[in-house]
Design goal:
heterotetramer; A: alpha/beta; Pyruvate-ferredoxin Oxidoreductase, domain 3; Rossmann fold; seven-stranded mixed beta sheet; six-stranded mixed beta sheet; about 20% strand; globular; B: alpha/beta; eight-stranded mixed beta sheet; about 30% helix; binds iron/sulfur cluster; binds magnesium ion
């Protein structure tokens, strides 16, 4: 009985490996296992080489691993590229039709088991389910929920195919890949993007504008799929500049409003971000990072846009930036982002990346009753004649009203303005308005999510990371030989409150920043706040996600003094 | 009863004699005629001399970025389909920096009215060629004459079958305010391109220049696309004014998921509904 | 003598059956017909499936940003007016993100050729509506059907009197390569909008769909603007292919300060000349 | 005899005060005086309130001052707004027609002395010239050079008007405003923008694209005015995105290439900047700062876009940023920018602001023979078949060839690419290409302009500033009561070399950063590099330029412990 398995399905784009992968993942989660999915795909629609890796465990799994227990090869290239990663007691399953003679390969007669190529996915699912010992009802149920709505006619056929594949696999008598029973409650199956989507819905998002861009396109598309049900307006804009300006317009009009994009698209939004800052209009901006500069590697992962997001937009205005580490944090922090955007009346950012955006995990279902009311503007004021959108207040925050819903007037201006919103070149007012805008920093400062610490009380070495590297780093400290490595993870990367973390930096012998970029951008931010003695960096920028093994290898090298 | 005074009196930053003054008056007149109260309208603009216009109206104002009035207006209208949303900005703003949004707005056909103060020049930045400046027109920035051909907004809008396409002239205020009323009342996206003399920087297309050329359309059938297309070419010795084209493409708002007319502000889904969605991820 | 082989053989990242394959072949054929050597051409593209095309040609390549092929090509051509500059990109790239540059390129009338692989869909990002997608066409991103009307590039280009406007079809390679030759040879800005089946994401406008509708123009006079305008509306039951409009607006390069054809790289003013300018500030 | 005078001309936009101001400035420079002009104008074409201040001195003048010696009021508002700044032995000249009764105002009968309102400017010029004792031939010569080319017919008329105004002024017998003789060689009359323009010409600029935006529009317009003479192609683009992409295209095609814009326009260029980084294409980017966010105060000054420029563009790639302090540095650093852009094959930035862009100074003529050859790409290579645009080299810099000029092929790609420029998703190549791009940092690091230090050997207090605040800060240390204040000015703000400045920070009791923004953006940068004890900031963000008085007032407060 295995406690854990890493299953990699590989093939060309267009061979449907995501469908097998997702069905399998769902079946595993419904069977009570923990999963961690890593998707790797090329920037093309057919051909090339893509993989879908499901790591499944009786206990929590939180990082990609390179060692493969079961390799499912839909084409020859997959065997060639990945066989050296298959463990000694691992298994390579391949389509019978792949002409490849090599010891120890198990052939699956996809063509024989499926009435047509459309059903080959389900053959894979059936085979794997039997192999690892899932109850057949589990993959069956998944087929029903996934195909049931879209194609009720094909459900029965699929189940038949599943059955024969399952039976065929049992007949093969391959032992040693059955998973131990798990006690986990079956939860949700969510990617980082899904976490953002559900968070936005829970926060009452009304409007989302976007221009398609990997890896964030899925967010507006999922919101749109529920548009009718929840009354969410999602508009595909002509370009990213339109998207951000639409979102700001909708926010002015009273909708909880957001955009989702990636680095290049976000670069185009910079002027719009500044508009949100100047006009004090709440907007939530999701930036799913991928390797740059320019078009870079459109379907891979990186954490290279922190600096850009931190300073995007000309001029000076406050902002908050979250860097969620997993789908749960995506959910929680998206809700928080909407609330904070409204309370600080400005842009709030959520930085994800392709790895997190596409990585499915099993998630304990959210308790929606726990979610506190998200702040919103108003439609009433005591003295409509005197209402001023930018009234000077002690906190810098002025009451925000929704235009046309009452007899007051709401005037918003991208130029410097009087409290009533009209354009001015009065330089004393200018100074007051700058002060007003910057004062709102206090709203953000008062509500910073502190970093989370994991590990021994007095670690000798401290790993520091942010965003999606949480899982890999967590596994790294758990797997570290000596029990003296701690981890500090930041899910909010701006603003920072030194008091939240300075003590963590004082005692360890070595502090190692773990980031998926080449510059160590977050390290620079932290070192602005606290003096870090003996700081090191573990960086990755080949487009693949960080993983525990990668971290530990380099940690060892660092500890041996090699840099 | 709404009156002109309801829309306030403001000191403007415009040159004396500028065509913007009369456009502002025509707008006010149109609003009164439509009996729109100040708080029912949202005026959206970009940046430029023309784009300051909403500041001289007592109403709701969204004065956004140069070139980006239309996307902002789109978001506003989608957020609150019941509001009367009118976009007012310059030729540079709408056809230059904002050219892509102009195309998209026509395609979307949201119930917005776009008033372009078309002075065939960049006014606020002191007289560079705009997209509508004639070829060969000399400016400080184009000392050898403007090398590009002019953008013909009416021709493009008609070619794209924009729902309502008209041309007005700042020098004919009653005619103009009537066009504005028609534009606002017509469903879908409406364009009124308004010839606006810039007394300071455009010494070619002066008040007299326009005056000598403009004539009111009489027997034109705005439902006739081919005729409108032909008319759109008439732009030089004679300049036709009036409604050039009127279409009946379906309006975008009809396809919105939420009940038309209801502001998104009021549309708050119940926790039950959210819960159902969340459960579908199990 | 230039031959097809001079332009190399590459493995592509396109789906089998995609219209891009035949467009690539037509382009090579046109280059050979024009006897252009690989190093004399510069192919410029943006981002998308279509925009990968230049990578499959042995030639000079500038593969820039999504939507920005035309401005890059403009800079290239102004920097080196002697080069043959051909822009190749998708409908999303040119009419969506790059819509404003499309308008400006027509107005400038620089001697560039724009080949738009128009598959009426965003291919690389997996099937969202593009500007040319029909209204009502359902996609994953537009589950209730595309709410916007389609952009008609030919209509807009003719309305703006672009110097050369043609429509081709990936399924008619000889016809297409002939159009490309004409486009490159015609002075000023040339557009060839190429209907390109996307076998993966566009299940509406399929190869058969186009095939059934496309016909070659016979008696059309491309010098006749009104007729071209009327033709541009014919887009549905029947789709005309061929040269829709041919104009003779002056070419931008004629107005350049430096001798036409001379790359700016060679144009290095003497210190004497600079000195004279500096002294004028005394 | 005066050693120095501050003359402020005020009136509405459209009253031609810039014409009087410029003529007067030219006459002063030609008479051998030092000048420092500050222009302040509103974002409108007619009306409002604009000023043109000429500070003229026998010795160097380098900062605006608020005390006015001669106020020239073209309208009533000017008197009202500025009279309280006129010194006790100062003078207010006003148009006779301004109905204002007040002691000590000198009337000029503009209408009487000028045949039509077109000539009123020259009346002002004649009057002022006589008042301060300029030889009449000086303003005469200026009229000839300024009007001579454009309107030869009006030159004679203007000179007649000048004469009568000059004679009229002499008749007024106003004493006490004559300037002492100066020994300065008459030099050039240049603004910061002019410095950039001449620097670009001297560097051999071939192409400039722009979209009009204050305060940078003057740069392309001046280049264009010389287009025929020097073969420079200047194109007004449809938007800023087009401008930067055109410039990159032209640079690929072999032209020395630049753009000029301001904050909001620059924000739109961010994606393009990243393209320059990825494709390793040289481009010089001038950002003339003005107060933001968004449209802000379009005609005023600020230093608020340093952070944005430092991190503009998604992904990671090297860059250099200059912050010239005066027109000479604008000239020198623009030449350097072109050279460095080519040698590092990437974007190089010049940060000016409205104050510097519009501020005329007298400049010692440049010695053009001293200018070293600016680097350029090539049109030949030994083995054209094997040429690779992104060949991997030790330095990270690959030979750059101009396409179509030889039988080689130049392939450039915004995606990650092979050495030959073609698109790749090979992740090992990716890593090599990131390393290659970042290695070029060494080219920039090897050629950093060190900060300049002015003042006593061991200052008790150190002022630190960058860019346009040089003059005001310089005057502040000269005017400081005690001779113990030093000044460290950075004309290059990125990259920084700690070795160039760390010693300056170790000894002073107090370090005071002087910046025209609200956040002290440069201070944050410096504090990343060196630990600064007892750091303070003097910040200004009302849209007006820094001046020596402003600095000294706040320095006093700081020293007295008030903050
Ligand atoms: C992004 C950006 N680019 C440039 C500018 C500078 N700018 C302000 S107004 C304007 C042109 C205005 O022309 P138009 O829209 O025709 O208005 P007009 O002043 O002629 O009424 C420009 C280029 C800006 N504010 N923002
Ligand atoms: C600024 C920016 N926004 C979005 C994208 C993502 N993107 C890449 S290709 C593409 C659409 C491609 O559509 P089209 O131009 O029609 O080309 P096709 O793939 O259909 O050939 C998009 C939106 C991007 N690369 N850059
Ligand atoms: S510059 Fe022209 S457009 Fe602007 S206010 Fe003056 S006259 Fe009107
Ligand atoms: S997705 Fe469509 S456009 Fe792209 S290669 Fe495949 S068939 Fe062609
Ligand atoms: Mg204009
Ligand atoms: Mg396409």
């Amino acid at each position: 009985m295995r406690k854990e398995l890493n299953i990699l399905i590989g093939g060309e784009a267009g061979q449907g490996l995501v469908t097998v992968g997702e069905l399998l993942t769902k079946a595993l989660i419904r069977s009570g296992y923990n999963v961690h999915v890593t998707q790797s795909y090329m920037s093309r629609i057919r051909g090339g080489h893509n993989t879908y890796s499901v790591r499944v465990g009786v206990n929590k799994v939180a990082s990609p691993v390179s060692a493969i227990d079961i390799l499912v090869a839909l084409n020859k290239e997959t065997v060639e590229l990945h066989q050296h990663n298959v463990t000694s007691n691992g298994l390579i399953l391949k389509d019978q039709n792949i002409g490849l003679k090599k010891e120890g390969l198990v052939n699956i007669p996809f063509k024989d088991l499926a009435p047509s190529s459309l059903f080959e996915n389900v053959v894979g699912l059936g085979f794997l389910s039997a192999l690892i010992g899932l109850d057949k009802s589990m993959p069956e149920g998944c087929i029903k929920s996934v195909f049931g709505q879209k194609k009720p006619d094909v459900v029965q056929k699929n189940i038949e195919v599943l059955n024969s594949a399952y039976t065929f696999a049992q007949g093969q008598k391959i032992d040693g890949f059955r998973l131990d029973k798990s006690r986990e409650e079956p939860g949700l199956m969510l990617t980082g993007n899904d976490g953002v989507v559900l968070g936005a819905m829970a926060a009452g998002v009304g409007f989302c504008a976007y221009y398609p861009m990997t890896p964030s396109t899925g967010i507006p598309m999922s919101l749109n799929a529920r548009g009718d049900e929840l009354g969410i307006v999602v508009e595909q804009a002509e370009d990213e500049i339109a998207a951000i300006n639409m979102a700001i317009g909708a926010s002015y009009a009273g909708a909880r409003s957001m955009v989702a994009t990636s680095g290049g698209g976000f670069a185009l939004m910079c002027e719009g971000i500044s508009l949100a800052g100047m006009t004090e209009t709440p907007v939530v901006v999701v930036v799913g990072q991928r390797p740059g500069p320019a078009t870079g590697l459109p379907t891979r992962t990186e954490q290279g846009d922190l600096n850009l997001v931190l300073y995007a937009g000309h001029g000076e205005f406050p902002r908050a930036i979250f860097g969620p580490g997993n789908p749960e944090q995506c959910f929680d922090l998206t809700i928080k982002a909407f609330d904070l955007a409204e309370r600080s009346q400005g842009p709030v950012f959520i930085l994800t990346d392709q790895y997190l955006a596409d990585s499915y995990r099993n998630i304990v279902p959210f308790d929606l009753s726990e979610i506190k009311e998200v702040a919103r503007p108003h439609d009433q004021c005591s003295d409509p004649e005197k209402y001023e959108r930018y009234a000077l207040t002690d906190s810098g925050v002025s009451p925000r009203l929704v235009p046309t819903l009452g007899p007051y007037l709401v005037v918003l201006d991208s130029d410097e303005h009087y409290p009533d919103g009209h354009i001015t070149e009065d330089l004393e007012i200018r100074t007051k308005m700058v002060d007003k805008r910057l004062k709102k920093q206090a709203v953000l400062d008062a509500d910073i999510v502190p970093p989370e610490y994991f590990g021994p009380d007095k670690p000798e070495k401290l790993l520091v990371c942010w965003g999606s590297t949480l899982g890999p780093a967590m596994e790294a400290i758990q797997n570290a030989d000596q029990q003296n490595v701690g981890l500090l993870h930041f899910s909010q990367v701006w603003p920072l409150n030194k008091e939240h973390f300075k003590d963590y930096f004082s005692s360890p012998e070595k502090v190692v920043f773990v980031e998926s970029n080449a510059w160590g951008q977050f390290r620079t931010l932290i070192e602005r706040e606290v003096r870090v003695e003996n700081a090191f960096s573990i960086l990755r920028y080949d487009g693949l996600p960080m993983d525990a093994g990668y971290i530990l290898d380099r940690l060892d090298m660092l500890l041996q003094g090699r840099k | 009863m709404v009156s002109i005074d309801d829309f306030g009196k403001f000191e403007t930053a415009w040159c004396p004699g500028c065509g913007n003054h009369s456009i502002l008056k025509s707008v006010k007149k149109a609003l009164v005629e439509m009996e729109l109260s100040p708080h029912e309208c949202i005026f959206v603009s970009g940046i430029g001399q023309a784009a300051k216009a909403p500041h001289y109206l007592k109403t709701n104002v969204f004065n956004g970025l140069h070139g980006r009035a239309l996307p902002a207006a789109t978001g506003i209208k989608l957020g609150n389909p019941g509001a009367t949303v009118i976009v007012q900005s310059g030729d540079g703003c709408n056809y230059g920096e904002g050219g892509n949004h102009f195309l998209a707005a026509i395609r979307r056909n949201i119930n917005l009215t776009l008033l372009v103060h078309d002075n065939q020049i960049y006014g606020l930045t002191k007289g560079q060629a705009s997209p509508t400046t004639f070829m060969g027109h000399k400016t400080k920035a184009q000392p050898r004459g403007n090398p590009s051909g002019p953008f013909n907004p009416v021709a493009v809008a008609v070619a794209m079958q924009a729902n309502f396409v008209a041309r007005g002239f700042a020098g004919m205020m009653d005619h103009l305010s009537d066009l504005i009323v028609q534009a606002v009342r017509h469903p879908g996206f409406s364009l009124v391109d308004i010839l606006q003399p810039c007394v300071t920087f455009n010494k070619v297309n002066t008040f007299t220049w326009y005056k000598e050329r403009c004539y009111e359309l009489k027997d034109h059938d705005p439902g006739n696309w081919s005729q409108a297309m032909e008319l759109s070419r008439e732009w030089g010795e004679k300049i036709p004014l009036g409604v050039m084209f009127r279409g009946n493409r379906p309006v975008f708002e009809e396809k919105l998921p939420h009940p038309t007319g209801e502001p998104l502000y009021y549309n708050i889904p119940s926790k039950e509904k959210i819960k159902k969605v969340v459960q579908s991820y199990a």
